[in-house]
Amino acid sequence: IGGNVAAVATSSPGVAAVAALPPGKGEARGHCGVGPSSRREPREVGSPFSSPSSKTTHSGDVIGGAVVVEDQPDVSAVLSAYNQQGDPTLYEEYYSGLKHFIECSLDCHRAELSQLFYPLFVHMYLELVYNQHESEAKSFFERFHGDQECYYQDDLRVLSSLTKKEHMKGNETMLDFRTSKFVLRISRDSYQLLKRHLQEKQNNQIWNIVQEHLYIDIFDGMPRSKQQIDAMVGSLAGEAKREANKAKVFFGLLKEPEFDVPLDDEDEEGENEEGKPKKKKPKKDNVGSKSKKQDPNAPPQNRIPLPELKDSDKLDKVMNMKEAARRVRLGPECLPSICFYTFLNAYQGLTAVDITDDSSMIVGGFADSTVRVWSVTPKKLRSVKTAADLSLIDKESDDVLERIMDEKTASELKILYGHSGPVYGTSFSPDRNYLLSCSEDGTVRLWSLQTFTCLVGYKGHNYPVWDTQFSPYGYYFVSGGHDRVARLWATDHYQPLRIFAGHLADVTCTRFHPNSNYIATGSADRTIRLWDVLNGNCVRIFTGHKGPIHSLAFSPNGRFLATGATDGRVLLWDIGHGLMVGELKGHTDTIYALRFSRDGEILASGSMDNTVRLWDAVKAFEDLETDDFTTATGHINLPENSQDLLLGTYMTKSTPVVHLHFTRRNLLLAAGAYSSQ
């Protein structure tokens, strides 16, 4: 992980040149409810899914005699909004005047109006820098930067290094601040109060900034309290507009195909290891036939094309149901056992882990660019025989699948070489035939677990790819990277099928919804977005984390999402209503792993603080206030009940937790590399 963290830190927004902005972000942002800014700027519009390379014109390319500046948000147009400046010497007065007014206003308005401090501070500072009043800018920064909320420290560090007009030209963080309006959610009463104050004072400079650069989402009703606001703010562009979370989301599960499950007797377990069901008269098993009714919140079965089930998949489902019949029912009284896989002497630097659904294999991605696959059952990993040997096999024999494997290749570890940079994400396909890995080298690779060779290298990201994951139905997979874009791929297509653009910084983690119709992405811009696979639209924007997001987990019923970040908090979201419904405090460092138990009773979280924590998920989601009023105004009341929900904390000696996985019988597997510092 050490390698991972360092790399994430170095690639924070504002380090790379502007070229890292995904082309097409300007117009794709229109879909995402972060509407194009009202400024009159030349805007080239294209399909949000057109390939990135087709549109980017690098700064200064001369086309037909006209100089085209990098990317849609035309930098000069964006920055020229700063031309209408006031008297530079009065900026401190303007700001402290407003500050005084807000601090003396009634308590009920003060919390809401305090949200203005940060965006105004940044814009006024940038305006001074842009108009080359460097000494005024410096004293303005020094006088007021200490008043800003602690979670803006990282952004302020970037800001403090921008002291000249030239610095602003090539800086992504700046462009984001410029092009995406900062969103504040304020009650009508507080807004009227502010407007009256600024107009009486004729404080046009601040009023201009409010109108030009902020988007004030006004709601009717009571102003929100300090803790209600604190829960929701902290992202790079303020809160999400309420419209952003209004679209209908089909969060229900798809209907499972029905087939008979032969019941096994205990004593036949021995010879049944290969997972071939015995020839018995099939008898309907209650486990197999549980999901007859269509979930009312589920998407139509054919909303997106999903691969057909093969015979081997059906066999696996049968095995899965048999295992499920023996699953332990977890709860506060019955916590899972935890089995920890520690990577010892991983001097190569462990950067990613995944475990197959049936818990038979574990894969590690390493900073030395290798991918290593282990078998964690007594069954060794074997490759398929060579073509010459395969031609000799009798295709009709019953054990043909056994005969095609080459015993000479059996070993418990296979090393896959191919990447040319640290491997930051790994994912097994549900049928265990394939493995994905993504790397700092900008590629995602698909490996065969039959031959242990690389089948395809998918090139689309030009920068490090931080995460990748297979769809729960196989065939599709998602990747996200430093270019701020997530891409949806299909294994048999060389180009991405969808490009999800809208995040303002690196996409650090990606997860499929259990019904495969949606994808969640977490980003260094401190927001989580939910994307519709069908049309590429952004259907949810969740704000509230105070640091980059590093882990995501959907609840098994598809209704809730848990997210973890560098701020050490786990936040819980109701997807249907688009609301934050809980906050779990306890970890003291970045949360890298989150996983719900198989029936969703327990949420496990794993962190850099060397602990695994178990939380009572049933209780956390029990009696939620999700009435229309809460949804409309964002007056969320988070219960302060982390301590009641925490069921256990388990320390490792000195091993940060990188991955968690519940087996089909609800044993919790955890993994990480021992660090000897």
From TrEMBL:
**One Pfam family, short name please?**
TFIID_NTD2
User: What binding partners and quaternary form does the record give?
Assistant: Homodimer. Component of the TFIID basal transcription factor complex, composed of TATA-box-binding protein TBP, and a number of TBP-associated factors (TAFs), including TAF1, TAF2, TAF3, TAF4, TAF5, TAF6, TAF7, TAF8, TAF9, TAF10, TAF11, TAF12 and TAF13. The TFIID complex structure can be divided into 3 modules TFIID-A, TFIID-B, and TFIID-C. TAF5 forms the TFIID-A module together with TAF3 and TBP, and in TFIID-B with TAF8. Component of the TFTC-HAT complex, at least composed of TAF5L, TAF6L, TADA3L, SUPT3H/SPT3, TAF2, TAF4, TAF5, GCN5L2/GCN5, TAF10 and TRRAP.
Q: InterPro entries of this UniProt entry?
A: TFIID_NTD2, TFIID_NTD2_sf, WD40/YVTN_repeat-like_dom_sf, WD40_PAC1, WD40_repeat_CS, WD40_repeat_dom_sf, WD40_rpt
Q: Name one GO molecular function term.
A: RNA polymerase II general transcription initiation factor activity
Write out the function statement from the record.
The TFIID basal transcription factor complex plays a major role in the initiation of RNA polymerase II (Pol II)-dependent transcription. TFIID recognizes and binds promoters with or without a TATA box via its subunit TBP, a TATA-box-binding protein, and promotes assembly of the pre-initiation complex (PIC). The TFIID complex consists of TBP and TBP-associated factors (TAFs), including TAF1, TAF2, TAF3, TAF4, TAF5, TAF6, TAF7, TAF8, TAF9, TAF10, TAF11, TAF12 and TAF13. The TFIID complex structure can be divided into 3 modules TFIID-A, TFIID-B, and TFIID-C.
What protein name is recorded for this chain?
Transcription initiation factor TFIID subunit 5
Instruction: Provide the family line.
Output: Belongs to the WD repeat TAF5 family.
Which PANTHER family does the record cross-reference, listed alphabetically?
Answer: TRANSCRIPTION INITIATION FACTOR TFIID, TRANSCRIPTION INITIATION FACTOR TFIID SUBUNIT 5
Give me the stretches of Basic and acidic residues compositional bias: 284-295
WD repeats (start-end): 343-384, 416-451, 458-489, 500-541, 542-575, 584-616
Q: List the SMART domains.
A: WD40
Its keywords, alphabetically, are: Nucleus, Repeat, Transcription, Transcription regulation, WD repeat
Q: Which GO terms describe its cellular component?
A: transcription factor TFIID complex
Q: Write out the annotated subcellular location.
A: Nucleus
Annotated region Disordered: where? 21-61, 261-313
Question: GO terms for biological process?
Answer: transcription initiation at RNA polymerase II promoter
Compositional bias (Polar residues): 48-59
Bias type Acidic residues, positions? 261-272
According to the entry, every stretch annotated as the TFIID subunit TAF5 NTD2 domain falls at 86-214
Q: What is its main location?
A: nucleus
